[in-house]
Design a protein that fits this description.
The complex is a heterodimer of chains A (about 700) and B (about 160). By secondary structure, chain A is α+β, with helices and mostly antiparallel strands. Chain A contains 21 helices and 22 strands. The two termini of chain A are about 65 Å apart. In chain B, strands 8-1-2-10-9 form a 5-stranded mixed sheet. A 5-stranded mixed sheet of chain B has the order 3-6-7-5-4. Chain B is of the alpha+beta class. Classes of the chains: A alpha+beta (about 700), B alpha+beta (about 160).
Chain lengths: ~700, ~160
């Protein structure tokens, strides 16, 4: 494969994958609702059509065939209306669609890996056809009639105008030779015309559903019947913007000869434009108008593009430099030499530039962030599949799916989350609804998937309301397997629960399709730790289990409050701040070691003087001059004494350089740093670890 | 005739290759009263005028971090590493000559503060001899005498990156 083909393949894979994602999303949502909306039927039809077209182009014949059959099926459903299907059929249709999606995904991943595709897809295609027959058979004989009749009379109709007494004129269209799937292309042309609001009929009438019509279209072209000449000439405009049309001609029924002769002279349009195109000179205006019309009628496209990550990084670097250079220019001392008026003007433009560069920086920074919803949506599908195969009734609740996470992290947490969801479905939720009722729970199990941000971490939790885990059982099991490293009595509940994350520990006796091989939790832990995160488990017997993943953000946007201490600027995440106030020395209470405390809302909290803890030089030493910030993180709450507040700002958290890792600043309240608008660096405080370092370890 | 020329050319290129195997382009700079050199393979750029953000709780030779076009780099004052803390204080970071050399050691980027940068020159690594003093400097791993009689010390940036000092 040469380079051009390679990049086409990339595009094909990307496009097909995103279409399948979209399909999956729709199917899961529709199945929940128990019905297809007509919009979705149209959308599925379009998706299948697109995949079919591009697969055929890339010469993946089997894929094209399967999608073609599905397209046929959805065309039928679209035509007859989804309501004509019985509940049972709908259910079957869902299963069929999920199966198809899996098949398509399987094939696509084979293409990605360069493996050979399954060429024999007759069984699968048959299933789809049987289903189509079944629903069409049930809902009347129209379909069979539609299928058979045109086949029968296509020969007789070969060279004559279609029988349409109401039509004032016909448009006879030939497609380029050898484009493939002529019937569908003809149908697409018809659709394009229809989207512009022109009323017409087309022949052969069954061209989109009957692939046998292809041959006929190849040989004789196809017809549009219009009620007026105007409509016909409008349609001609539209045809000009369509691809793959070799020639067309307006024919009025009074003169039936031309269409008769054209095929006679040229048996196939392969010989090129035998019928001369309507000789309308192509003017710019004529071209633009139909194009605009087509656009308004076209389905709304996903407004996303894919960009190489390294380009984003390069963009970030350049934007950073622009910001620095901008402040260098506007702050340069030479400006003071300018006359008053010009200086003011200059500063005005300077401020404008500043605003723009700020916006630019914000946008550049947000580019790498993607919502976690993509990962969560996939879980929908897993829960749905397992629900069926395990025969458990579970609802999945998703919270915080719009939490934004760095792209790299999203990619690497998908597998761990999937494992955890499977575990919860398989082992967490009770086997039967009766068991749940006996335990006094809602017969429908619940699985909650939630994501949220803290200052330095993304917290993803997967909780179920199932059996819960018994620490004693876990300990006993670990003892049997010889995994204990200290006396059983010394294990805390938390440590006991963590035992399940040891390699080779599986609580389930039987290995199921989904989990129970004793590698799951071990792998989850390793994967999460490899991106610097941690897994923790809380569980209560009979109530449920919650698995929490804490993953540090390599690049997350945080709302922060900037404070100064001496010449350093610190950023405290707004989420951690409860209040900030001025304090008089009288409000300070000291313990016997001189540690300061103060009272807030009837409780006493310790005060940490940031300049003392970090040994910073500052002139602000007395309580009146500085400011006290009351901060809080999980269950710790305390006050920080700083020099001054600068203001609030959204900042991008950057990790400290790797070189500094040996010094463990993370354990001393410094979780990262951020670059401020003027190019200066601010240190981001981790309220929790600062407390640990300053108060608990003294 | 043309063949001969070709052969000559080949010989020449071979010679050049042989030479280049041990000759490296090196950046020479002054720090703590010594003249040091460092292969340009490690050097990314030389900057000055960047504000250094102080980070608390770190050893004194780590001056802090700088923002180099959105990239956060640690800055090390090698004068303090080499036990010249008083000199570093007196010369300060503001003196006109001192600057930061940004180096990349095994894709670990960092900045080192030096008194001044001299020039880039070719140094034959075969001429570099070990430092004959027993308690040698931990950040220096060799010395070389130039034709004009001056002595250069080889700066070991790997030692710096791996905190072997």
């Amino acid at each position: 494969m040469d380079n051009g083909m390679e990049s086409m393949l990339d595009t094909y894979l990307y496009e097909t994958n995103s279409l399948l994602d979209r399909l999956d999303e729709m199917l899961v949502a529709d199945e929940k609702a128990g019905d297809f909306s007509s919009d979705d039927v149209n959308e599925i039809f379009r998706i299948m059509h697109t995949i079919k077209g591009s697969s055929a182009m890339m010469e993946f014949g089997a894929l094209a065939t399967v999608t073609h059959h599905i397209e046929d099926l959805f065309f039928y459903i679209r035509d007859t209306g989804i309501d004509s299907l019985s509940q049972e059929h709908k259910k079957e249709l869902f299963n069929l669609m999920f199966r198809s999606e899996d098949y398509l995904r399987g094939e696509i991943s084979k293409i990605e890996n360069g493996e050979p595709l399954i060429e024999n897809i007759d069984d699968f295609a048959n299933d789809i056809n049987i289903f189509l027959k079944k629903i069409s058979g049930d809902s009347g004989q129209d379909e069979t009639a539609g299928n058979d009749v045109p086949d029968a009379d296509s020969v007789s109709r070969d060279v004559s105008l279609p029988d349409d007494p109401g039509a004032e004129c016909f448009l006879h269209v030939f497609l380029d030779s050898g484009v493939g799937m002529e019937n569908l292309r003809a149908y697409m042309v018809a659709n394009a015309v229809r989207e512009c609001g022109i009323d017409f009929r087309y022949y052969p009438q069954d061209m989109e559903s009957n692939s046998a019509a292809s041959q006929e279209i190849i040989e004789n072209g196809f017809f549009f019947a219009f009620d007026s000449q105007d409509a016909a000439s409008q349609a001609v405009d539209i045809l000009k913007s369509q691809n793959h049309i070799s020639s067309y001609e307006i024919v009025t029924p009074e003169v039936p000869e031309p269409p008769k002769e054209a095929p006679a002279v040229v048996p196939a349009p392969a010989a090129g434009p035998a019928v001369p195109a309507a000789p309308a000179p192509v003017t710019g205006a004529a071209q633009a108008k139909p194009a605009a019309q087509v656009k308004t009628g076209a389905p709304v496209k996903q407004s996303l593009i894919s960009v190489n990550l390294s380009k984003l990084d390069a963009l970030m670097a350049i934007v950073g430099e622009i910001v620095i250079t901008e402040s260098m220019v506007t702050a340069s001392p030479e400006l003071q030499l300018l006359p008053r008026d010009s200086y003011d003007n200059f500063m005005k433009s300077g401020r404008q530039l500043r605003k723009l560069t700020d916006d630019l920086q914000d946008i550049a920074m947000s580019l790498r962030m993607v919502p976690i919803s993509g990962v969560f949506q996939k879980m929908n599908r897993i829960v749905r599949d397992m629900k069926q195969s395990l025969n458990k009734d579970v609802r999945l609740t998703i919270i915080g799916e719009d939490t934004e996470v760095d792209k790299n992290i999203v990619d690497s947490i998908q597998d761990p989350i999937m494992h955890l969801v499977r575990n919860s479905m398989d082992h967490g939720i009770e086997e039967t609804a009766q068991e749940r009722i006996d335990a006094g729970k809602d017969p429908q199990g619940e699985l909650i998937l939630s994501a949220s941000h803290t200052s330095s971490e993304v917290i993803i939790s997967i909780s179920d309301d199932g059996y819960g885990m018994d620490p004693d059982k876990l300990l006993a099991k670990a003892r049997d397997k010889g995994l204990l490293v200290k006396p059983e009595s010394e294990y805390t509940q938390k440590e006991a629960l963590s035992l399940i994350m040891l390699p080779g520990f599986s609580t389930n006796q039987a290995v199921t399709e989904y989990s129970g091989r004793g590698v799951g939790m071990d792998v989850v832990k390793r994967n999460v730790e490899s991106i610097g995160g941690m897994v923790s488990i809380t569980s209560e017997v009979g109530v449920g289990t919650t698995m929490t993943l804490k993953i540090p953000l390599t690049l997350a946007i945080v709302d922060g409050m900037k404070v100064t201490v001496g010449s350093s600027i610190f950023t405290i995440p707004i989420a951690n701040i409860r209040q900030s106030f001025k304090v008089t020395p009288e409000q300070i209470i000291r313990d016997e070691n001189g540690n300061e405390m103060m009272e807030c809302l009837d409780n006493f909290y310790p005060i940490i003087r940031l300049h003392e803890f970090y040994h910073l030089d500052t002139e602000v030493l007395s309580m009146e001059e500085g400011i006290v910030m009351w901060v809080e993180a999980s269950d710790r709450s305390y006050c920080l004494f700083v020099d001054d507040l600068i203001g609030e700002q959204q900042v991008v958290v950057k990790p400290l350089p790797v070189f500094l890792n040996p010094f463990n600043l993370k354990n001393y309240g410094i979780s990262g740093c951020t670059i401020l608008g003027d190019g200066n660096i601010s240190i981001i405080l981790d309220v929790l670890s600062l407390h640990t370092a300053a108060i608990e370890n003294v | 005739m043309s063949e001969q020329v070709m052969n000559q050319n080949e010989n020449e290129t071979r010679q050049v290759q042989e030479e280049s195997s041990s000759v490296e382009r090196c950046l020479t700079f002054e720090s703590a009263g010594l003249v040091l050199f460092l292969s340009t393979n490690y050097v990314i750029e030389i900057i000055n005028g960047y504000p250094i953000t102080y980070l608390p709780l770190l050893p004194p030779y780590i001056k802090g971090i700088i923002n180099l076009r959105g990239q956060i780099l640690p800055v090390v004052d090698i004068r303090i590493c080499m036990g010249q803390s008083d000199m570093a204080d007196s010369s300060g970071d503001t003196s006109g000559q001192s600057c930061i050399i940004v180096i990349d050691v095994d894709s670990l980027p960092m900045g080192i503060i030096v008194d001044s940068v001299r020039q880039v020159m070719d140094i034959d690594l075969q001429d570099v001899r070990p430092i004959p003093v027993k308690r040698q400097q931990k950040l220096l791993d060799g010395m070389v005498t130039l034709n004009d009689g001056s002595v250069l010390m080889s700066f070991d940036c790997h030692a710096l990156a791996e905190c072997r000092y």
